[in-house]
Amino acid sequence: MALRFINTRTRQKEEFKSIDDGKVRMYTCGPTIYDFAHIGNFRAYVFEDLLRRYLKYRGYEVTQVMNLTDIDDKIIRSVKEQNIGLKDYTNQFKAAFFEDLDALGIERAEYYPAATDHIDEMVEMIQKLLTKGHAYKADGSVYFKISSFPQYGSLSHMKLEDLKAGARVAADEYEKDSVSDFALWKGWDEADGPVFWETPLGKGRPGWHIECSAMSTKYLGETFDINTGGVDNIFPHHENEIAQSECASGKTFANYWMHCEHLIVEGTKMSKSLGNFYTLRDITGKGYSPIAVRYLLLSTHYRQQLNFTFAGLDGAKAAVERLVDFRRNLQAVDGDTDSPEFPALLEQAYTGFQECLDDDLNASGALGEVFNFVKETNRLMADKKLSTSDAKQAVEAIDKFDTVIGVLPQAEESLDDDIQKLIDDRLAARQDKDFAKADSIRDQLLEMGIVLEDTAKGTVWKRKL
Ligand code: AMP
Ligand code: ZN
After folding, report:
1. Taking the mean position of all CA atoms in its chain, how far away is CA 213?
2. Dihedral sign, Cα of residue 223, residue 213, residue 39, residue 96
3. Does the Cβ of 229 fall within 6 Å of ligand 1?
4. What pTM was estimated for this model as a whole?
5. Rg (CA), the chain
6. What is the pLDDT of residues 148-163, one digit of tens each?
7. Closest Cα to atom 23 of ligand 1
8. Is the CB of 238 under 6 A from ligand 1?
């Protein structure tokens, strides 16, 4: 079966064919670095990471660009309030963003262009749109003329007839029913204070939408394979990206559009403006591992809303622990006779995993296949029917699946000498029947994030999730 995705633009499930054989060029709408990202934002980035990792699993070489929006209405407000430089303000949140990406096991994209480093490219694209009659100047700003692009609305299914003659919006973010000309370039005014660029378009700053069109063209070309984001990006942001890019180049902008549904809290989108949000730091501060958050975010199909609860997070934590334990227990298997049942289980795991993810990234289905494999293999293990060779193949399969799931510890972690000494001391205390001492050492290790488990084969340890 071929790889298929639901394309937001056509609303159809389509077979995925890349422009260049074996290579995928994809764009991801990144964060506005004006604050810490919340876990709703990370749902989008984890979905895009799943997509990226699965494309690689299917043998594609991936070039991904994620923009960093370091200029917008909100950033300007904060810079003025705090009276600091634009980059000084945004750099702190950029650093925090990368820390969070790493904690969540999100692979790095190939490029992270920042909007303010690409003013020239944006100005050039706006000039092209002016020359071609798709943009006009008004009150020191430049607006995109949406009546000049009859396909406007093809992504969001907005109707161009709803366009009010002469209606214009200058704000970066605006209401869903606002079918209006939008700002490509905003002429400076008092509210912008110290934030402006002197360009052939005049003194001012770029609008939000033009940055993605200019930067994707620069790094991926005028037409690329996949553009991604959350569903709130569809209108107006992505609709406007299509209008700007296709009018400037005369070519299709992106062949596939994929959008993830929202992370919600009690039925409402998690968002900064509603105040119903958790940052990753809020959650790790409560003792949860970021990897449990990653699992929670990717385990629901990306096109379904995901209701955030701590009970759900506990479930995610247990699922990750199950995988980690499974892998560790397999490594301790010692048996000479291959199980006649095992090859079929292994085969089903590989084909089931791929069939699910091929079908529009059905991650919950793929995880179901993995856990079925875990359950059945555990059964063979418990009955001592698994051979060392079976177990080795099972580890290989889990490691291969984890190149997509991304929740297992990266490499066998070596214990610090101090920790090893504590484990040895505890063993000695137990041998001396000093159980109080042994228990207190176990507690001490627990505080250091190390969990011990006494098994028939001796004491094994793992990091607490
Ligand atoms: P923003 O910083 O608001 O531009 O959002 C960055 C990314 O997070 C975009 O792709 C949004 O679509 C996505 N996003 C924002 N809120 C949520 C949410 N509650 N659930 C899923 N994705 C979201
Ligand atoms: Zn964008």
Report:
1. 20
2. positive
3. yes
4. 0.89
5. 26
6. 999 999 999 877 776 6
7. 41
8. no
